[in-house]
């Protein structure tokens, strides 16, 4: 199903001033494709992704997942939708500090499987399948040798790549990531984009924000946001 944003506006108030971050934005994010939301820093890319994921509500406008309007859902329903259907990565890539990298992935997998009957892994399947897939993800992202390490011993780039693996571990139908390649070296940028492209080829809807030329070139679609007049 396509995701349709219809006349999305988002305003914030700070002291006595009102700021318009998004102004009457309409866009269709096609099912099973790789879409990049691009634009300068501060233009509203993160705000737009948060609205698509149901993490933030627009001041005006509606978001549709197919025929279903999600902007009218309550917080509990939105949370269930995210947990069972989406993989969402914000710019906050923190891992649970007292769990190893592989344990962080396993926990994310367990939570998603318990909340969704539509996941590629059912509850009846042994954890061996999830463990095998986690190993594939870690290998693709150059993290295999760190699977038993705790977050405190990882670099910021390693934590970001681990957060990407955690987002993908339950094979969500919709992947939303905010700047997943930011501050990574070129080798790891390519590895991340290759992995996301693989997901979209398999039918997953992938939506990321990025200002990277390489990401824009890799994607099926690029939607460039421009600054609103405040």
Descriptive overview:
36% of the residues lie in helices and 24% in strands. By secondary structure, the chain is of the alpha/beta class. The chain has a single domain, classed as P-loop containing nucleotide triphosphate hydrolases (Rossmann fold). The protein has a five-stranded parallel β-sheet with strand order 6-7-8-3-9, with helices on both faces. A four-stranded antiparallel β-sheet has the order 2-1-4-5, covered by helices on one side. The radius of gyration is 18 Å and the shape is globular. The mean pLDDT is 88.
Summary of the model, kept short:
By secondary structure, the chain is an alpha/beta fold. It is 36% helix and 24% strand. It has seven helices and nine strands; from the N terminus they run βββαββαβαααβαβαβ.
